[in-house]
Amino acid sequence: MSMTRINASAATLTKNRTEGAICSLSGMCTTCVDGCIGMCEIGKSAYRGGEVIYPQPFGIITAAAEKIYPVDLSHFTILGTAVGAEGIEADSDKAIFPNVNLERRIGRDKGLKVKLPLIIPGLGSTAVAKSNWEGLAIGAAIAGIPLTIGENVCGMDVKSEIANGKVVHSEDLEWRVRLYKEWQQDGYGTIVVQANVEDTRLGVQEYAISELGVDTVELKWGQGAKDIGGEVKIGDLKKAQLLKKRGYIVLPDPTDKNVAETFEGGAFKEFERHSRVGMVTEEGFLNRVKELRDFGAKYIFLKTGAYRPADLARAVKFGSKAEIDLLTVDAAGGGTGMSPWRMMNEWGVPPVEIYSLLYAYLDRLAQRGEFVPDVAIAGGFTLEDQIFKGLALGAPYFKLVGMARAPLAAAMVGKTIGKCIAGEEEEPIYIKQFGDTIEEIFVSAPELKRKFGKRFDELPTGAIGLYTYLQRLAQGQRQLMCGSRKFALEYITRDDIAALTKESAEISGISYVMDADKEAVNKILGS
Questions:
Q1: Model confidence at 167: pLDDT above 90
Q2: Could you tell me if residue 324 is inside a domain?
Q3: Residue 43 in domain
Q4: CB neighbours (10 Å) of residue 235?
Q5: ∠ Cα 297 300 303 (to 5°)
Q6: Cis link prior to 252 (omega < 30° from 0)?
């Protein structure tokens, strides 16, 4: 059953008056009473209007869809075996889970090396991303995974210097790049600079390549949370006016005298800043890739969202023609800082469906001998079983899993614990049971202290939190792979998972669990 709760959500800070008696079709209370103060979305929209479209409170949250899709990754199971080992000698003393190799090389020249099959996709100009960037950048760098600086960072930076319509200096972008590079270990991972329409006009990627030493850039068609451009809220009139001057869509118009007076009078407290939608063409895409390569970009990625199947086919085909280094496909429902809430729930191709289409399209290219770019998939991944299933669903083409909301959560928790240790906030009993110091609370701290020595004290607790979370994922992934007797990522195949329902089998092409291993079974038992 596919469903989303309508008319009331924690994401929009709304609720029904009659929690136990709600019309399933409309989401309204079964009895809507004259005199209600309007706690539901309809009621709140009656006095706050368009503000209620977006998840709230902006700037300190991320949000993802509540939608329950007909099929998801829980409708597949991981198949283990008691026989043999791939990627290591079939010896019980050697085929142990700590020996599973999770490193991978990606890119058309296989020159990008990662410690784990993960990437953090675009975290850009939202306040929640910026306030946790130290933890994200340093945590990802020391874990050896790529991190993407999302759209609009330069445009949103009030200190950016722009000459003749092009950015020539951005303190914010420089800081984000530098943090990652300063902590990058042995060349693992990479810092990626993404660009949307406004970024491209500002020459952000050219600036990042020439002035900041960035090797990897990403063209952005969209993301899984929405099919329009990025949005943020602006609580400062002068900043809203500056962004309008820089070419952004700002609502309501902050340069309108009446609007400015209304804002200063307190009738509303935030402006909306919107990005434009791109206009994709094959010629334009191929030309842009060539421009960036000619300018010095070593690796070029493409990020696309949960658009209709024809657009997914375009991403695959154009990416193949341009021989890009990584294609990231984000499924519907993905988390973000501020996407329209109903859009996030009711738009786009869901995860299992889009991954299955993606696999089929990539396989068609491979069968014809065409270039197949390395692929990352994103859309609500949090733990190791989902990572295993995602990689298996598109094997051998899916190389990485994109995760943004979960790593950000780990960094936020690490940061909060650091504040508790420093005495800025009261340490809850839930945390206090483990101790009062970084070394006692964070299980990876002793390892990091040995590795970094005196520099350990420079590590923000947000980074330690992210690193510790990623190491948990790594151990869990190694255990699952060991159970399937796959001791390196390249040995994962589609038959390492089975579908638990006929519907999930039909959608994905993965064997229904009752049909799995039929040939092997007949060979063992005799037909």
A1: yes
A2: no
A3: yes
A4: 13
A5: 145
A6: yes
What is the per-residue pLDDT across 391-443, written as a single tens digit (0 to 9) for each?
A: 999 999 999 999 999 999 999 999 999 999 999 988 889 999 999 999 999 99
User: Which residue range is the domain that position 521 belongs to?
Assistant: 497-525
Please check the confidence at residue 192 and state whether its pLDDT lies above 60: yes
Measured between alpha carbons, how far is residue 319 from residues 229, 379, 389 in Å?
Answer: 21, 20, 24
Q: Is residue 506 part of a domain?
A: yes
| Cα–Cα distance list, 370 to 126, 287, 293 (Å) | 38, 20, 21
Q: What token pair was written down for 495?
A: 């038959």
Q: Cβ–Cβ contacts within 10 Å for residue 258, how many?
A: 9
- Residue 308 CA to residue 96 CA, distance in Å, equals 43
Rounded Cα gap, residues 208 and 160, in angstroms = 13
Give Cα 253 to chain centroid, integer Å.
31
- Mean pLDDT of all residues in the chain? 95
Query: Edge-to-edge, what's the strand order for the sheet holding 271-274?
Result: 231-234, 271-274, 249-251
DSSP conformational letter for 234? E
Can you tell me the distance from the alpha carbon of 150 to that of 153, in angstroms, rounded to the nearest whole number? 7
Give the number of domains in the chain: 2
The three-state secondary structure class of 311 is helix
Q: How far apart are CA 281 and CA 296, in angstroms?
A: 23
Residue-wise burial string across 1-33, b where 16 or more C-beta atoms lie within 10 A, e elsewhere: eeebebbbbebbebebbeeeebeeeebbbeeee
